[in-house]
Amino acid sequence: MDKGLLVVISGPSGAGKGTIYRNVIERAGMQRSVSVTTRAPRPGEVDGVDYFFKTEEQYQQMIAAGEFLETAAVYNNFYGTPKAPVFENIDNGRDVLFEVDVHGARSIKRKYPDAVAVFVMTPDFEVLEKRLRGRGTETEKSIRTRLGSAKNELSKYDLFDYIVFNDDIDEATESVLEIINAERCRVKNNIGTIKNLLK
Ligand code: 5GP
User: How much is the average pLDDT of 18-43?
Assistant: First the structure.
């Protein structure tokens, strides 16, 4: 490919996008984009691997220095995508995968219209609630907030290029891998290579 792909995975909290994201990174050999957040680490989360955990003051300094591709307030915390590593990767032909909320997906698509945006959803909202409860990491209030947001997020469907209904995590992962493979084969993503062959 001429350049790396920028692939965005988004969707409601609890739909399984985090698991799909990890599976795809492992199987498609993609670069991860590690986000910066002001929220507290959950048990087992590692700084620099799951997120870069920052104070609000540090975060504001990063905004002022123009270090983000996009930044959003999600559930009372800030989340943002650091810009530099993303462009370094795609300019060197490496595909980058993002897991961001719907606002993040919109900002990325605006700044980089060639980004491929995939929405991950459960088959219905009852399954979503069950998964959020099953996770055991959220308070009742946080579960209510996340469920309330889910419908609003789905209503932004026209921002997305693909939707994957996650009924079975292995099948959903497979679908995302197929999407990435198809995008890698698109003529418009291989013009440079084709022209070289024609020389
Ligand atoms: P969590 O706190 O559960 O890890 O993430 C909460 C929400 O923030 C999720 O919907 C997740 O996709 C989103 N998120 C994580 N990183 C980023 C980011 O860099 N930018 C944006 N806009 N959202 C993010």
Answer: 94
Ligand 1 test: best mutation among 10, 79, 110, most atoms within 8 Å of CB?
79
Which atom of ligand 1 is closest in space to residue 81's alpha carbon? Answer: 19
In this structure, the number of other CB atoms found within 10 A of the CB of residue 92 comes to 10
Q: Name which residue sits closest to atom 24 of ligand 1, judged by CA.
A: 100
The neighbour count for residue 106, using CB atoms within 10 Å, is: 19
Q: Which domains does the chain have, with CATH numbers?
A: 1-30+95-199 (3.40.50.300), 34-93 (3.30.63.10)
6 beta partners: 96
Of 12, 5, 28, 6, the residue nearest 119 (C-alpha): 12
pLDDT at position 138, please?
81
Cβ atoms 95, 116 nearer than 8 A: no
pLDDT tens for 38-61 read 999 999 999 999 999 999 999 999
